[in-house]
Amino acid sequence: MVDDIAKDVSVFSSGLEAGDLADSIKKRVNRVKDKKEFWLEYLYVSVTHTKSASKLCELFSRHLVPICKQNLNLTNNFISFLKEFKEEVSSFRDSEPVSKKKYPELLCYLKADKKITDSEFEGLKFDDFNDQIIFLFKKWKSQNDQRLMLFVSKDKFDSI
């Protein structure tokens, strides 16, 4: 089910609008009985799918968080869902090495899009966060992406 979403992201790369993809995912999740399982699986694919992980993380943060909150009645308790996912990540980090880089990336998208607070962001990080996130920071720097400044002070910017 969620693997189909990863396939959709390939189409998204070739012209499908993010809003259209979000609508497609919303329709899928509405057909699913266990919505929590769907969203946990979506996040799992988002941090483990080698080709589409970054796009899935960004899509979740920018377009799908409100749908997820609504599906799970998490308007005021979204962080508890993310903490549960963090526990799941800790169980597969070694067997899914790409997740060591993509889970921190997901957190950065959520913080940059103001879906989580600074303190929630800190509470969701693993100890090796700084070692794992450097690739995203280099990408953002090369693209002059202003989100980088949320994570890196001006005096450390040049060292990235």
List the helices and strands and how they pair.
Layout: H1 2-13, H2 18-31, H3 35-48, H4 53-71, H5 78-92, H6 99-112, H7 118-124, H8 129-132, H9 134-142, H10 154-157
Helix pairs in contact: 1-3, 2-4, 3-4, 4-6
Task: Please give a quick description of this structure.
By secondary structure, the protein is mostly helical.
Count of distinct structural domains: 1
Order of helices and strands: HHHHHHHHHH
Distance between the termini: 38 Å
Helix/strand/pairing category:
mainly alpha
Number of helices: 10
Strand content: under 5%
Q: Helix share of residues?
A: over 70%
Question: What can you see in these coordinates?
Answer:
This protein has one domain (2-129). The protein has helices at residues 2-13, 18-31, 35-48, 53-71, 78-92, 99-112, 118-124, 129-132, 134-142, 154-157. By secondary structure, it is an all-alpha fold. Helix content is 70%, strand content 0%.
